[in-house]
Design a protein that fits this description.
Length: 224
């Protein structure tokens, strides 16, 4: 198994390299986001272990670029950023797992092995409605050969709509599902994401549309 390790602390990178090589992994190590992106784009890896806070590009920026380019290499974020919102940000970017520093070597190895096993048994997790397909693993919306990549928030909204087609979903449900009960985010942010989703659905020439129902919410239904 071949891993890419992206860590800006040279001592920790050396330790990680030793840990994985001692457990029969082949390891390439880099110390900044740009090199991580270049390596992940140009070489074939079974998995990536990556810090979030790195020079030149953050780990989240790197992963978003990789997912946009359809590079789906399983990725674990290993980072000192431990707040729940930051973990969610990393997972929304397309990470498969998240381990905070400081970490136990045994847990790190177990998580990486589990991540790689999931890759071996991977089957796409799809939602479909009138020819429109949402891939829950890649955050991609497609119609036939056409495809659009979604942001984390767009994906969460589209997932709710496709799970309940032709049923009006209140704006409040989107808010609590995505931002939580005690959020201070204004409901207008839902309109912004819905507007972006409508453009992407239109670009796919899909047979469905998202309609706003005054004083009720949004519904995914057949195009009029």
């Amino acid at each position: 198994m071949r891993l890419l390790i992206a860590e800006d602390d040279p001592k920790l990178l050396k330790s990680l390299t030793y840990i994985f090589e001692s457990n029969r992994f082949i390891v390439d190590g880099v110390t900044n986001g740009s090199d991580a992106l270049d390596c992940a784009m140009s070489e074939e890896y079974d998995g990536i272990v990556m810090d979030i806070m790195m020079p030149e590009m953050s780990g989240i920026e790197v992963l978003k670029k990789l997912r946009e380019e359809k590079v789906m290499t399983p990725t674990l974020f290993l980072t000192a950023r431990t707040e729940i919102s930051q973990r969610v940000e990393g997972l929304d970017a397309g990470a498969d797992d998240y381990l905070p520093k400081p970490f136990a070597t045994a847990e790190l190895l177990a998580r990486v092995r589990a991540m790689l096993r999931r890759k071996e048994t991977y089957t796409p997790d799809l939602l479909s409605c009138k020819g429109l397909t949402l891939n829950r693993s890649t955050y991609q919306l497609s119609n036939g050969e056409q495809m659009q990549s979604l942001s984390g928030k767009e994906f969460q909204i589209m997932e709710l709509l496709m799970q309940s087609p032709n049923i009006i979903i209140p704006t409040e449900k989107f808010m609590t599902h995505i931002w939580g009960w005690d959020t201070s985010v204004d409901t207008s942010v839902i309109w912004v994401h819905i507007s972006n989703l409508r453009k992407k659905i239109c670009a796919l020439d899909a047979g469905v549309e998202i309609r706003f129902v005054r004083s009720a919410g949004y519904v995914l239904e057949d195009k009029k």
